[in-house]
Every structure is written in structure tokens, then in C-alpha cells.
Amino acid sequence: MNETNELQILLTYTDVALASSLIIVVLLVSWRLRLGLTKTLLMAAVRTIIQLSFIGLILAWIFAREHWYEVLVILTIMTLIAAGAAKNRVKRAYKGLLTDTFIAVSTSAILVTIVAILLILQVKPWYTPQFIIPILGLILGNSLTAISLTSNQLINTFHEQQARIEMMLSLSATPYEAVHEPIRAAIINGMTPTLNSMLVVGIVSLPGMMTGQIMAGADPTQAVRYQIVTMFLICVSSTLGCTLSALLIYRRFFNRQQQLILPS
Length: 264
Hints:
- By secondary structure, this protein is an all-alpha fold.
- Helices cover 76% and strands 2% of the residues.
- It starts with a strand and ends in a 12-residue tail after the last helix.
- InterPro entries: UPF0014_fam (IPR005226).
- This is ABC transporter permease.
- Keywords: Membrane, Transmembrane, Transmembrane helix.
């Protein structure tokens, strides 16, 4: 590792290789306890290196050019991948789930990113890749987790509580009244990881973004301010995404006659 005059530590490929070798410890634990995760761990490690190295080259190229249409292509690809990842985490998928997931992920993430870029950070031009790509990436990564948790629990609840919901409908309850509690519980479930991280941030954990900035030599007070901003952006985006996802699923599970249906 090389130390600069500004106390920044520049990582070499040797440093990265040394850090990568630590995965051997995890592999040994998996083998000794017979966790059956050896193949998954190796694949995850290899994909981490390949994917991050590839995106590093892409970002370096995008940062050097700063063309708005190239930035939009990257943002679109990121959003599509996030929607697909959220959909794939749902065990009981139905036809149209990918569309619903994409709407929830893209709407929440794009709205919050626009607010961050135009109103909070006031980035000019708005498509400056140094800001918009990392911000959208942070928001998408957390939103897809929240949305997948909400979707998975709500769909499972609709299947498991079909008899209860139909009984409430037969007693003159509206569809929303019949499923209000499952929707509420699903949104809370999706929001739990975000809320938990907000409760302990700065006390138990230092988030990756803040840690990376400090290690790169940034002013700690500025790193803290950026982290506060991103935490609130993530919270708002996750809330919007979970709520929108729940409402879209709710729409799929009731027909025009206000009858419960189980789409496949």
C-alpha cells in the first residue's frame, strides 16, 4: 500500500488479492460446519471481483465523457437489474410481478434521486455521473431489498389467509378493509432493515459510504453530512417503494367485482 501526502492510502492489486484471500476463512468455516455454502461463496466472491472491476472501467469511461444519454443508459440498466433482482426474491411470483416491481422500484428511486440531485445537492449539470450514479445505486440497492420483503410477505399472506379474507368480504367488508392489516404488516416488514440501520448508525456501525470517504481522506464532518443525506433518501425511497409495491399487489389480487383472486 502506498501512502500519499494527504494521508490517503492507495490500494494496489496486491492489496486487493490479499483481501480476497480472506475468503478462505469463510470457506473453511463452511466446510467444517458442513453449511453447504462453498460453491455459493466461491461464486459470490468471483462475481464480486468481476462485476466491480467491470463497473469500475465503465464508470471511469462515463466520468471522462459526461454525456447525458450515456448516463441515462447506465441508470436505466441499473433500474432494470434492480427490478429483476427484487422480483426474483419473491417465492410466489405471478404474471405481471416484474412489471409491478419495476414500477415500484423505478418510481420511488427516480423521484428521490431527482430531489437529491436538483434540490439538495443542486448538481449542475444534473447528469454529472460522479453524483447521480452512486446516489441512484445506493437507493436502488436498499429499495429492492425493502420491496422484495414487502412483496414476498404480502403475497404469502394473501395465499395463506384466503379463507379469512373471503369471510370478511362476505360480511360486507371492502377489499381494502379485508387486507389492510396484511398490507400494513408487509410494509413494516419491508421497512425494518432500513429502520434498524438508522437506529444504530454512528453508534454500532459506520456505513460503507461514510467509511469509504473517510478512508479516502475526506473531511469526516462532510462524510457525516453526506451519510445523513443518503440515509434519509434511502428511508424515503424504501417507504415509497414498499407502499407502491403493496398497492400494486393489492390491485392484482382483486377483480372488478371486488372478489379475491390468486394470480399465477
